[in-house]
Amino acid sequence: MSQDAGRTDPTGASAARAAKAHVRQLVAGDSRVNGIGLSRQSGGWAVKVNVVDDADSPELPATVDGVPVRVTAVGRISARAS
Length: 82
Fold this sequence. Notes:
Blueprint: H1 5-8, H2 13-26, E1 33-41, E2 44-51, E3 63-64, E4 67-73
Parallel strand pairs: 2-4
Antiparallel strand pairs: 1-2, 3-4
């Protein structure tokens, strides 16, 4: 893959990282969000937003800068005692 692939492919890794930064700004300070990451999907990358509950998740666009956004309920995250 060439270095330019991320610039022309809206679901390339470079575009996905930029979209992730944009999504991070959209959900900044929202306690319903546990984390934001990238996930592979058929045909490229998506921004993955982990939330506490599907029934109470932030309104997000289906795509940001041409990159799909996937919201997944993972429950409340807490540290385990070691």
